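The material for today's practical consists of a large collection of protein records. Read left to right, the backbone structure tokens trace the chain's path through space. An example says more than a description, so a record of this kind follows:
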Amino acid sequence: MRLTKGAKAPGFVLRDSDKKEVNLEDFKGQNVLLLFFPLAFTGTCTEELCYIRDEKSFYDKVKATVIGISVDSLFTLEKFKQEQGYNFPLLSDFNKEVSRAYGSLYDDFVLGMKGVSKRSAFVIDAEGAIQYAEVLENAGELPNFEEINSVLENLK
């Protein structure tokens, strides 16, 4: 299923790297940048999330909550977040339900891996509607942060 601008963002409850439940409903009234990434500790994923870490003051300024999601385990995400100093939550979609709901799941990835999150970016507004959706087929590409940031600036 492909989500487009104006669609209601699928709800979810996942655990973060601190093992706490995070419910998308908890962010009602806030803008959210939801980033799906394939695998922790890989080059492009690290580059993407380090960009977000280093630009956190921008996301704070535009009042956007950033959330990263992958199919990695809680324990892997905890180590990844700790080693890279990420200043936003990383959620485990180990059962792949949320990645699937957002149309962000590879059936076949590399090296015979199946069911890995596609690199994707969604901006969800304060009312829970998608205002930006980008699902990349090539895991080596980064989301269009210039466009994402522009959408967020216009929502604040």
Q: What stands out?
A: The radius of gyration is 14 Å. The chain has a mean pLDDT of 94. The first strand starts at residue 13 and ends at 16. The chain has five helices and nine strands.
